[in-house]
Amino acid sequence: MIFNREFVIIFILAIILSFLVFGNGISGEFVFDDVTVVQNRGDLTDPSNFFNLFISPYHQNMPKTGLYRPLAMASYAINHYINSSLSSSTSSGQAAGFHVVNIIIHVLNSFLVFWLIYFLFKNKFLSYATFLLFLTHPIHTEAVTSIVGRAELLSFLFSIISIYFFVNKNKILSSISFLLALLSKESALMVLPVILYIDFVVLHKKIKESIGNMLFFFLPFGLYAILRYKALGSYFFGAATTTIVENHLIFSSFLERIFTAFKVLFMYVERLVWPIHLSADYSFNTIQTVSNPFVSLESAVGILILILLVVLIVFYKKVNKEISFGAVLFLFPYLIISNLIKPVGTIMGERLMYFPSFGFTIIIAWILKKVIEYKKLDAKVVYGFLTVVLIFYGVRTIVRNKDWRDSQTLFNATVKESPNSLITRTALAGVHIRAGEWDLAKEQLQIARNIYENNSHLQNLLGVVADHEKNYVLAEEKFKKSLELNPDATNSSINLARLYLKQGRLQEAGDNFLKVINFYATAEYIIKYSYVQIALNKPDKALEMMSKYFGSSLDNPDISAVVGTAYFVKKEYKQALIYLKNAQTFGNKAPEIGEMIKIAESNL
């Protein structure tokens, strides 16, 4: 028997090792998808909106993405609330709390890996080896160090907890945990065949009884389906926004999709075995389509890997339950994101290997265990080999964390591994633009154009460059092209509105700011829209907009300034003075405020 004291030691070890190998990522900033999904989200920073997150799509006001992960969103919201109380000002300071939470969840997950393997198979070496390999594996960097990887972490956590309660015959808590896993990420659905396998093969239940036990999960799934439909509506079954850039397999023939998916399977396993060439992005045109597996060694090996996994699962009695269980934990979570069953939103992503890697580490640990049992090598040699692998994994993870420090380090690292990725090239161009490195930005944008030109983000950045070079006709053309390709491209609407302001085209500027507000209401653009309405001599529209979003709030100097200016234009000087003086009191020292106050006072 393993004693409770040893479980405590394992948990402490999980804490120490997790912070040792992932801790240098805590100082990292919001990068890549962190920015849009977590950092720049007004709905996540408003405490009054917390429960509304459970009936909202994962991407704000974008049900067409087909993603619904409210538990992950709720956890981000809690992080934001804590940040606001601590008043972290820098990007890395704001992100630190998010990183710490991700590492803590990884601690829990690693501990549960140890517990589950020991509970099912009562083998210390298999449990320890799997636990350590899983905890330190470099492929987990994207799930742990990237903040948006939390959906993977939470889904794994509640899936394993669901299994825990199931094998302990507490079906109610198992069902609740399953619901929480689904609310973390849709792919948690794969835990059901895993539980069925455990019940039938490991716990030796009859197949009818095992299938009957699955009925307990219909209620939580039904509740999840209702909430998902409430959030996504007609996009309940999937996304309508995936383009050729995110996953070109959606636009490939059936056989091309299948053969290329086998190639991707090989690439995943390659990175699990030898995690050196890791990348944050595998989108178009990083992975070439495979039309014939006989001319693609990667695709052919991928087919063999799938066959091997199926054989290990089907012939568990002749093989071994331990390695068969590893195959189950790899294959079922993998299939749901593989593009083999149906196309998904991305062609490949290392964060998606978080759950399948559990199965992989079981298989590797089982192989090492068998080498010891067969005494073909001295046990010390196996322990030494495992130690070397763990040190290699740990060091590689620490090094990989550094790539995620900020956008510049991440995309410079990514472009080395995925030089043909359109998303990476445009992201790196964006980094150069923000740094004022316009020539470098243009260089990256030209490479991106050679990869694929009909991309909304690329067209927007081309417009930004044209705007910087004062070629306003070309800038307008590019911003409009961006919106034609993606009507929901808010950055393009913002840039177009700013361009129109420069040109004095106030009505068009206001129309674009209003479009942004209707999609993504933030104080900055509400204020800009309101000032445009005032400039158009429509102060009532400005007051209507300010009242709609801010009520009668007086504690914000910028809001008070807008409202005061609107009343000033209406020549309602008494009301104007209340808001204008309030704006000054709270720190708005703009000279125009002082001038309006003088004029208003002289007219009373």
TrEMBL record:
Keywords associated with the record: Membrane, Repeat, TPR repeat, Transmembrane, Transmembrane helix
Mapped TPR repeat ranges: 456-489
Ranges that cross the membrane: 7-26, 96-118, 147-167, 179-198, 210-227, 294-316, 323-341, 353-369, 381-399
Pfam families: TPR_19 (PF14559)
InterPro entries with a match to the protein in the record: O-mannosyl-transferase_TMTC (IPR052346), TPR-like_helical_dom_sf (IPR011990), TPR_rpt (IPR019734)
Protein name, per record: Uncharacterized protein
Organism: Candidatus Yanofskybacteria bacterium RIFCSPHIGHO2_01_FULL_41_26
